[in-house]
């Protein structure tokens, strides 16, 4: 590849080239940072999440993380089931719904599976931000209730399994009960 002589470039082009260079080496995207925050509150005795590397630019190669295959991939599925995880669910979970409005994407987190771990504490209110979520599997943990009212915001939720937990109270979910 030909070497670019920066001194010969007009200033706007120079700025563009330099910012592209920086953009390429920019760190982990925001979804990755939310996931690292989720991990920071989780005990992972068996190191299942050891390849969640902050040096990656996206979390798409991380264990349990599935991304769309777009040019700008987003996390659509998070499967942390049966990993002996403990700790509590971070409010950062809600960040996995944050998408640049201008892209008007439909795809974002649609499936979350944390079943069969030792997760404790309540569901964070921010789970109600995951507006594309259609599958939420959380059975066999130590999640405490009551369920946050924001769960009612999940209009696309089709499957919700949270048995074998310490959830108290009942909750109306659109037209069905849990
Ligand atoms: C991330 O990059 C830094 C600097 O290159 C390096 O010291 C560190 O070991 C890397 N971390 C991982 C988990 O690869
Ligand atoms: C979970 O923990 C048990 C012991 O408590 C261990 O035998 C088992 O291999 C672990 N499973 C996973 C998937 O980490
Ligand atoms: C839930 O917590 C209780 C008491 O703290 C413990 O005995 C039980 O093993 C835990 N269950 C799970 C699935 O972690
Ligand atoms: C995320 O959820 C919190 C708590 O329910 C709420 O206050 C906040 O407005 C939500 N953010 C977005 C972007 O929906």
UniProtKB/TrEMBL annotation:
Keywords of the record: Leucine-rich repeat, Repeat, Signal
Domain Leucine-rich repeat-containing N-terminal plant-type: 28-68
Signal peptide residues on this chain, from the entry's feature table: 1-27
Coiled-coil regions listed: none
InterPro entries xrefs: Leu-rich_rpt, LRR_dom_sf, LRR_N_plant-typ
Top-rank taxon, per record: Eukaryota
UniProt xrefs under Pfam families: LRR_1 (PF00560), LRRNT_2 (PF08263)
Entry keyword Transmembrane helix: no
Keyword Repeat applies: yes
Descriptive protein name: Leucine-rich repeat-containing N-terminal plant-type domain-containing protein
Lineage start: Eukaryota, Viridiplantae, Streptophyta, Embryophyta, Tracheophyta
């Amino acid at each position: 590849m030909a070497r670019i002589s920066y001194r010969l470039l007009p200033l706007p082009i120079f700025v563009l080239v330099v910012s592209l260079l920086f953009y390429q080496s920019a760190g982990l995207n925001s979804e990755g940072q939310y996931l690292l925050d989720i991990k920071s509150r989780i005990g992972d005795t068996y190191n299942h999440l050891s390849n969640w590397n902050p040096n990656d630019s996206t979390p798409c190669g991380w264990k349990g993380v599935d991304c769309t295959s777009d040019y700008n991939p987003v996390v659509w599925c998070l499967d942390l089931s049966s990993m002996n995880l403990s700790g509590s669910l971070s409010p950062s979970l809600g960040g996995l719904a944050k998408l640049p409005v201008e892209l008007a994407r439909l795809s974002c987190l649609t499936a979350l599976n944390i079943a069969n771990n030792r997760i404790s504490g309540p569901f964070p209110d921010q789970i109600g931000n995951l507006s594309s979520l259609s599958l939420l599997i959380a059975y066999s943990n130590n999640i405490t209730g009551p369920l946050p009212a924001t769960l009612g915001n999940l209009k696309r939720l089709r499957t919700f399994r949270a048995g074998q937990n310490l959830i108290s109270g009942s909750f109306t979910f659109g037209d069905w009960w849990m």
